[in-house]
Amino acid sequence: MTVETLTVEPGRVRQMWHLLEPLSSVLYYAPEAFDEAAALGYDVEERWPSYFAWRAAALGPVGAGRVASAFYSFSPAKVARYVPAAWAVAAPADVLAARLRAADRVYRTLLGDEFLASPGLAEAAALARRAADAAGTHGRPLAAAQAELPWSEVPHLVLWQAATVLREHRGDGHLVALLAAGLDPVESLVSFAAVGAAAEVTFAGRGWSEGEWAAARERLAARGLVNPDGTATDAGRALRAEVELRTDELAAAPWAALGPEATTRLADLLGGPWLTVIGSGLLPGENTLGIGKV
User: Fold this and answer.
1) Listed residue (89, 67, 79) closest to 145, CA to CA
2) pLDDT tens digits for 17-61?
3) Angle at 253 between CA 247 and CA 259, to 5 degrees
4) Most buried among 5, 43, 47, 253, by the most CB within 10 A?
5) What global pTM score does this model have?
């Protein structure tokens, strides 16, 4: 980490994540994306078949082990239900093409063609790409895979891809922080629930069994990080705060490179789209990322 990186306030780094994360992840919930997934042949009765396909396709036709490693907090057993079966439905290249069509349709539905053609949207896309281009990808497999994809010349698709590169860049760094804190995949969720980031039931989609969750809680209790009722001890809260701070520090480079004035400008430009996406009701009110709580 450079001295320059450290000059970016963690609060600013986290604000940019909060603004950009919904602009990327709305794809995983939008009807237009399920339409595109169904056209490829994926089961859309639940969101997981398309989720794993959309998010892992940039890695190529990889197996469950690599996806579980990169996604980290998902149970390997859950990943194995969808990968590598996803590539028998559609090749990664076809998934990526459909994903871009889905992003185009989702943004047109939510934001409208007039806004997508506006100078403000074009400016936001250009700034977001500058930040994404400055996101180092060493040791960050998901960010690197997204960053290698060709860029569209359409501004709103540039914005979507930049937001996706930046969300994966932050996510890859978050795994580094979790590993440094000695939190394995299920412990990372149990400790996050313990500080009130979200209710335990919110994390059920990650696929861990009740026994695995209870065993992780016991391990954390033995370290003095959670109480018998599952809430965090002071030490547990301090450790999670350290993880989040380290995550912010590791996600700061794009914003250090963009600079304070351009970062502030981008934040201002993203306010309207962010409100529209949040107000669409497509995203869950409580999420496994703890946005708005931690």
Assistant:
1) 67
2) 999 999 999 999 999 999 999 999 999 999 999 999 999 999 999
3) 130
4) 253
5) 0.94
